[in-house]
Amino acid sequence: MSLPKSELPTSGDGVPPPPSNNKTTMDDAISSSRSSSEATHDDNRLTIEPGDLEKVMSKHEDADVAVTIQETNDPNVVNWDGPDDPEKPLNWPASKKWINIALISSITFLTPFASSTFAPGVPLVMEEFGEKSLAVASLVVSIYVLGYVFGPLIIAPASEHYGRLPVYHVNTFLFLAFSIGCARSTSISMLIVFRFLAGVAGSSPITIGSGTIADTFKQEQRGKVMSIWSFPILFGPSLGPVVGSYLSAAAGWRWDFYLISICTAILLVLTVVCQRETYPPVLLERKAKRLRKETGNYKLRSALQTPKTPREMFLLSIVRPIKMLCFSPIIFGTSLYIAVTYGYLYLLFTTVTFVFEDQYGISSSNVGLVYLGTGLGQLVGLTGFGYFSDRLLKKWAKGGELKPELRLPLLWPGAALIPSGLFIYGWSAEYKVHWIVPIIGTFIFGAGMIITFMPIGTYLVDSYTIYAASAMAANTVLRSIGGALLPLAGRSLYKALGLGWGNSLLAFIALGMTPMIWVFCKYGEKIRKRFQLNL
After folding, report:
1. DSSP state of 48
2. In the prediction, which pLDDT does 401 show?
3. How do 301-302 and 77-78 pair as beta strands?
4. Which of 55, 103, 408, 488 fits a 20 to 30 Å CA distance from 297?
5. Class of residue 312 by CB neighbours under 10 A (exposed 0-12, middle 13-18, buried 19+)
């Protein structure tokens, strides 16, 4: 039996001290088994009953709180078979973990790839359907990203209720169906609707991929894994137009969607056959169900079982990402910063074709190649982040606690590169300097963007481990609003201010947001602990 709240002793920092030795350690999948970081929290454990887990985690959502369950006197509680239980995702063989990550990364590449593959083919669509509006030309591309706003609000809670695997499978199937719908569209409005629905379903791997990583990898390993998983989110949109420009010119714009459908069908088969569930509460519930059947003891229950009904849990999970976005300054601030830079990326994607065709006379079949500047910049930025992130985390920790805020200093190089790239791109294109110069500008911008994107994503996963999917869903919602809406202003912005001052305005806004990084780095931990949410 747990102590009454008034009798729970606390240490100086307000976190209860460790329990006595007759307590058994609960599922690390919530947050323990984390190496150095977790070792620090081992001295801050809380004794609770299984049904109180959600309440405790809600009060301590800002840290990797190691929780112990009072199960010594309750033989009906089903838990892992010790900290080294091979069924626990953190203890899976490396090959099993990486097969999962490879499949998730492949889907994560395909859905952002689909967001921009179609961009070079927009003039062909406008001609076929007799549409002349510039706003519609931008909307038919950016509406896909608007789907990213709504998808995470259902997908993240569904994954925390039903598990990751069924959510991946269902949304991959829906993405396939909606992509075929795009290919078979008979009007511009039909195409826009199916593009939006494809974006909703396609947000699945982007939303819960980080949750899968939190399920299976320790904190000091996540920087590298997050970089591998996150790279397709940004590189996919850069590579898409390269493929789309040639495919549209050779076979028509519909084949952009047929190609996506074929690749999705292949990945759907592979994931159904090879992918495995990683969410610990679901795995423990399966174990309890199996033991109930084998033993005939129907009192057995998972250590992570909650007293709430499935309906209550699902509704709570739906509200959670919105609550985190609205009431956590850390999540809102980091998401806002990413939203602006992500919006810049899609603004470039929807205008680069016209800029290089009009300013440099590049043909529609070759114009997709100019997107490689951004993609190569992202590749360089990713390589640098993947190499330095985990190493610097351990170095800056100096053998102490691996605080999530130690991820954030890497934001500074990205904050400098983004406006620099925009200045170079805008003014060189304005004065028609050799075409390689604006591409160098997009290269610098791409490197800066991924160097800001990666630390923030890893920071949120480290900070809100048990609710990593919801934290990233909140981030994805605001980020996608920027990605969907800013491109709508791109053509008008350049028409009013020109390429030079238009991109300079974007660069000045990016510079104006850099003080946020200083606030995150210096006061992030205090803010995070000050605004603890009852999730």
Report:
1. E
2. 66
3. parallel
4. 55
5. exposed
Q: Is residue 384 part of a domain?
A: yes
Strands 67-69 and 46-48, sheet pairing = parallel
Closest alpha carbon to 367 in 241, 256, 247 = 241
Q: Which residues of the chain have pLDDT under 70?
A: 1-73, 310, 390, 398-401, 534-535
Same domain, 143 and 34: no
Q: Are strands 301-302 and 46-48 parallel, antiparallel or unpaired?
A: unpaired
Dist CA 310 CA 385 (whole Å): 40
Distance CA 473, CA 153 (A): 7
Question: 3-class secondary structure for 228-261?
Answer: HHHHHHHHHHHHHHHHHHHHHHHHCCHHHHHHHH
Look at the alpha carbons of 439, 443, 448, 453 in this order and tell me if their dihedral is positive or negative: positive
pLDDT of residue 21: 42
Q: Is the dihedral of CA 286, 94, 471, 526 positive or negative?
A: positive
What confidence score (pLDDT) does residue 535 get?
61
520 vs 381: CA distance, rounded Å = 21
Q: Would you say residue 245 lies in a domain?
A: yes
**Structural domain that includes position 27:** 5-74
Q: What pLDDT score was predicted for residue 403?
A: 79
Number of structural domains, the chain? 2
Alpha-carbon distance of 183 to 191, in angstroms, equals 8
The residue among 15, 50, 74 that closes a domain is 74
Shared domain for 26 and 150, answered yes or no, is no
Would residue 34 count as lying in a domain?
yes
Residues 401 and 519 in one domain: yes
CA–CA distance, 389 with 222 (Å, rounded to integer): 9
Q: What is the pLDDT of residues 336-367, one digit of tens each?
A: 999 999 899 889 887 888 889 889 988 877 88
| Contacts of residue 73, Cβ cutoff 8 Å, sequence gap at least 6 | 1
CA distance 473 to 532: 18
CB 432 within 8 A of CB 441: no
Predicted structure pTM score = 0.71
CB 215 within 8 A of CB 164: yes
The last residue of one of the domains, among 74, 98, 116, is: 74
Long-range contacts of 3-6 (CB under 8 A, 24+ apart): 3/47
